[in-house]
């Protein structure tokens, strides 16, 4: 029995590796490019939750020109930088300033857009100079060059900082008066103000520079070459100008401004639901898919580890206890980041986000499953095993015929419970950029800033699904009795 179980564990691991390698092999033909969640006019989601913007259109035009394929991953700027470093992404196109510090770690393309850092304050604010920031709070965005610039001024001007993962939340903090100022790139800040964000720029652009497309130093050089060649071509044939003009045109600006306005019929609860129906359904589909695949893997893994724990073999028991201890002890978020960002930087092998998500669920939820499987079997009266053995049944048969059927009954509620927990836990996997329900919500809010209404919709969807699942499980349990 021990051997069989170990065989099964190896088989499960082999399947997962095969799955991950095959998806990777497939993905390698297409370059994976990270971008920001929302950084208009360079990247943002349109009404249909499709990514558009100067960066996106330039990249697509260049890819077409140079015959390569890209898959765009709107994971957020800081997450993109980390994923590029761990080898999960091939490049970043995210309004990324080519700073000297970054040039040590990354290779940049030829410059494609002029930038510089500015300070913005609320529309009605009296602050016009850095000197007025003393003792005040300033909002910055995680991992950005403008944020670094603000940090370099912090001691001299005596202000404190608070960090946000995306630009919109940073602006909001200033609009709402929690912070007195924020630091942002000049083309992005100007665009946000033009499209209705209630801020104003009060400083001249500092540390002027350019945006570039980035790859890891010494890697993906052929991609960089193609990018540069394509960029030169689209600059020459007028495509570059067309793209930039399209986003800076008064029509696009007016449309963006309109989308931000309150009282817009599309901003009511039902308006939002209707407008984002497609995206929400897709997100929900991904959540359910992740849950089902995750729970299947977790159940197989958990049952095997749980059974190893009750074998009359010290090594098997120790192994089971250790696995449960480690994977139940680690926070799900840490485990997901470790598998998605940590492992690839060690092994050099990419793991697609979905596969990383499933492995995370398998290990974490599987550890809980193993614990209750072990507990369920141990809860069966010891006398049962002794009686079966004294009747001459071998350990394996006694386990299968006598103990497991009784143990299983004890475990059923825990299985159902674990299913519901897994569904909820998938939301944490939005951190690695899986476009499930929670990540879908983040992207919708990045576009329309309707945090309260959109999170209410997302919460309701989770609650409805969980209620349905609970009903189903009660029904199944009744039937089983
Ligand atoms: N402009 C930022 C930087 O260069 C990147 C961003 O916020 N998308 O750091």
UniProtKB/TrEMBL annotation:
Residue ranges occupied by any ABC transmembrane type-1 domain in the UniProt entry: 284-473
Ranges that cross the membrane: 288-311, 323-343, 454-476
SMART domains to which the protein is assigned, alphabetical: PBPb (SM00062), PBPe (SM00079)
Keyword field contains Ligase: no
Location of the protein in the cell: Cell membrane
Keyword Lyase applies: no
Keywords tagged on the record: Cell membrane, Membrane, Signal, Transmembrane, Transmembrane helix, Transport
Signal peptide residue numbers: 1-27
Topological type in the membrane: Multi-pass membrane protein
Family of the protein in this entry: Belongs to the binding-protein-dependent transport system permease family.
Descriptive protein name: Lysine-arginine-ornithine-binding periplasmic protein
């Amino acid at each position: 029995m021990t051997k069989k179980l170990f065989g099964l564990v190896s088989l499960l691991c082999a399947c997962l590796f095969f799955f991950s390698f095959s998806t990777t092999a497939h993905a390698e033909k297409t370059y994976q490019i990270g971008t920001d969640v929302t950084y208009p006019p360079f990247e943002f989601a349109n009404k249909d939750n499709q990514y558009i913007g100067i960066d996106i259109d330039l990249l697509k035009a260049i890819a077409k020109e140079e015959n390569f394929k890209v898959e765009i991953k709107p994971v957020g700027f800081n997450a993109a930088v980390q994923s590029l470093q761990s080898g999960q992404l091939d490049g970043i196109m995210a309004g990324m300033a080519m700073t000297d510090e970054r040039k040590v770690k990354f290779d940049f393309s030829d410059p494609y857009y002029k930038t510089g850092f500015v300070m913005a304050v609320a529309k009605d604010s009296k602050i016009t100079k850095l000197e007025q920031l003393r003792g005040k709070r300033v909002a910055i965005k995680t991992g950005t060059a403008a944020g670094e610039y603000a940090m370099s001024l912090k001691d001299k001007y005596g202000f404190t900082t608070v960090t946000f993962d995306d630009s919109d939340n940073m602006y909001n903090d200033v609009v709402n008066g929690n912070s007195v100022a924020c630091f942002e790139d000049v083309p992005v800040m100007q665009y946000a103000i033009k499209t209705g964000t209630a801020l104003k720029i009060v400083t001249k652009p500092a540390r002027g520079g350019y945006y570039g497309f980035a790859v890891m130093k010494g890697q993906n050089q052929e991609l960089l070459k193609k990018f540069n060649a394509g960029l030169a071509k689209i600059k020459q044939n007028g495509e570059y100008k067309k793209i930039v003009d399209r986003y800076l045109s008064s029509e696009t600006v007016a449309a963006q401004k309109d989308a931000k306005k309150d009282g817009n019929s599309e901003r009511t609860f039902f308006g939002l639901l209707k407008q984002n129906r497609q995206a929400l359904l897709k997100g929900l589909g991904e959540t359910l898919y992740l849950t089902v695949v995750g729970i299947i893997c977790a159940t197989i893994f958990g049952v095997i580890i749980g059974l190893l724990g009750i074998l009359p073999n010290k090594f098997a028991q120790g192994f089971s206890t250790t696995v449960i201890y480690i994977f139940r002890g680690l926070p799900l978020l840490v485990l997901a980041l470790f598998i998605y960002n940590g492992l690839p930087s060690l092994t050099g092998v990419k793991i697609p986000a979905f596969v990383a998500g499933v492995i995370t669920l398998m290990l974490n939820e599987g550890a809980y499953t193993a614990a209750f499987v072990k507990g369920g079997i141990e809860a069966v009266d010891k006398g049962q095993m002794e009686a079966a053995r004294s009747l001459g049944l071998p350990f394996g048969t006694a386990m299968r015929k006598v103990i497991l059927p009784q143990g299983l009954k004890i475990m059923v509620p825990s299985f159902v419970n674990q299913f519901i927990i897994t569904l909820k836990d998938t939301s944490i996997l939005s951190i690695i950029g899986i476009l499930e329900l929670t990540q879908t919500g983040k992207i919708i809010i990045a576009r329309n800033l309707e945090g309260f209404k959109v999170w209410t919709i997302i919460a309701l969807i989770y609650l409805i699904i969980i209620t349905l699942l609970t009903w189903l499980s009660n029904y199944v349990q009744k039937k089983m009795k």
